[in-house]
Target: AAA family ATPase
Amino acid sequence: MVNTQNVNPLKSQSLASNPAQRVREDNTTQRTEITDNLDQLLDIFPAAICTKLKEHPEKESMIEIVMDLGRFPETRFPDRAEYLSQTPISREDLQYTIERVGIFSGDNRAGIERTLHRISAMRNRQGEIVGLTCRVGRAILGTIGTIRDLVETGKSILLLGRPGVGKTTALREIARVLADELDKRVVIIDTSNEIAGDGDIPHPAIGRARRMQVARPELQHQVMIEAVENHMPEVIVIDEIGTELEALAARTIAERGVQLVGTAHGNQIENLIKNPTLSDLVGGIQAVTLGDDEARRRGSQKTVLERKAPPTFEIAVEMLERQSWVVHPDVAETVDLLLRGQNPKPQVRTVSDEGEVTISASPPTRPLPPTLPLTSRTATPAQPRGWRASGRMQPLPNQAQTRAALNSDFEKMLDRSWHQRETFNDEMRVPGPNGEEWPVYVYPYGIGRTQLNQVIELLNLPIVLTKDMNSADAILALRSQIKNHSKLRSIAKARQLPIHAVKSGTMPQLTRTLRRLAGMEDPNEPETPDLRLFTQNGSDDEIEALEEARLAVEQIVIPKRQPVELLPRSPKVRKMQHELVEHYRLQSDSFGEEPNRRLRIYPA
Model:
């Protein structure tokens, strides 16, 4: 079924009336394009380059100008690139340009005040600028006619697409339409001053929308929360959501009833599903173990991937080309279908040369990503190949290289969901990745089995607790029990069983010891605790609070040595956060009055 609707060009009086701007009517697509102060961008270049650019017959369609030390200056167009001269760029040329732009921020971006142009720097190992990418900024009105009906629904919208496809341009136009034509309170979180331009006065292309600047890129998530708490917005506009803290802040904002409009790098939703940093934007992915009957009914393996929570963004738009967008009106349904190995059925919206939007319900063929599990594919249990199964020693294939490719927790989860480990018993063992035999039989002494079973089950460790010391591979005991129990030491010595001692029966210490027993501890890899070990009932609220604390510690406090304040939480949840911070051997304090009392984490 194909629907057709007319797109009316949206024209802003504030933009068109500015004599310093170039306005161009594109009759083929019925859009108004404003190239903001192109001469002001060209004036920052050395005289020889500036003259060539101003005399270029196609300067109105330029995308960016590139200056690299020791190379020829280059200008790029949508379909090609060409050199501006045969004289290599010198340090003096770079310095000339640097002195005529704004200050480069923490993300190595600068701008020209009250314009949309962006200047990005490339630095050497000493921090000196050796290259510049100067992108021409344009405000294009009428670009969102393709999805205007979705913008008016009030649902959160996520724009996906490769760099340069026009995500920021569409974001800027959405903010203007929501603020000027739908009379909503819009706040833009402008981390790199790319949406509303450089300087303290925002560019008129955003209309009545307000702009909050970010001092440092790593503080974007805090500014997002501050915008909601202090300025009562109805819509929050965010460009380039790229970290887990920003994804978590976006979920917090969406749960407070604020409409979100944001962008993320990735061509399709499948890219977000496979990205552990941003998967929460589409609901997050978790491994679920099915019962025998349910697995048989589905015709799948027992461990499958399912969506963990409702998506932060209800609508997703894949910007394949400037005139062709794929729209997923229900992200939850799309993610569920992909995880089950089925093809989603999004809308394909294209704009014709006459300016008409065509909505097609028949999507193009999109192959499923190879890393997503297919429900029609059943896992083949790994056959034991060790000497216990065959009665003689056999060489084992090198599985370390295979597992080395799984360089993230998410990829390891995908791998575990495909290959079910067979049930261990006393008569059969399977080889581990380094040739060791799994499972490892452990005889616990003086330590509660409930705690041990919880750690083994949550971390999926190949360890079996045994009450028979004759069949044990190792003894696990409290250090105080070993000192006062000479008989235990003598029995272990007679049976040649190693004794692994722990100072106390806390979850972190038991986790480290059991992982070491199973040969799964990597001394070169920083230890990331399993958050479920610190929760009481494992609720989403507890997991979210602990995840926020973990990301703050690992991404800001430890590497940048800066204190971080977390979001307000209940006393019970704050206690869990304190325990997690102690795991990293850091200090934390609670401050503020209820219900806004929150944690502050300090560097070591």
Observations:
- Confidence is low (pLDDT under 50) at residues 1-30, 367-407, 417-427.
- The chain has 20 helices and 30 strands.
